[in-house]
């Protein structure tokens, strides 16, 4: 092993994957915590609440822009029960509404309200600034810098 320091052992493929996963998890946690603090302080909004409003706003093109609860849960990577609790909190604040699907009485749709769209637009610059700050801070850590570069290189992906 010519590239390894004397006495060092190269990690196995499994160990390397575990280290990569650990770094990715660390990056995610750092970013989410930084954004959470900024959104809470300035807009009384959690990262998850922002994500729900953001996903629903992407579906919003006038009347009928909505998602079923299961689609919303999948989009924000939460269980259906956690999504229901989150939607209830946002609904109580007047930021979105739920209604029964006219074509399928079993389906429940969720749509962002005008008030929710307004709050989202007010919060988006805070979110984006906090994201840039968190990435810049993480980029200074050697173990996270390659992941930050990969994230910054992503284009055309949607959330």
TrEMBL record:
Which Pfam family, any one of them, does this sequence belong to? MarR_2
GO biological process entries: response to stress
Q: Which residue ranges does the record assign to the HTH marR-type domain?
A: 10-156
Establish whether keyword DNA-binding is in the entry: yes
Q: Which GO terms describe its molecular function?
A: DNA binding; DNA-binding transcription factor activity
Coiled-coil stretches are none
| Alphabetically ordered keywords of this record | DNA-binding
- Keyword Heme annotated: no
What InterPro entries does UniProt report for this protein, alphabetically? Answer: HTH_MarR-typ, MarR/SlyA-like, WH-like_DNA-bd_sf, WH_DNA-bd_sf
The record's listing under PANTHER family reads:
MARR FAMILY REGULATORY PROTEIN, TRANSCRIPTIONAL REGULATOR, MARR FAMILY
Query: What is the name of this protein?
Result: DNA-binding MarR family transcriptional regulator
Instruction: Give the source species.
Output: Streptomyces iranensis
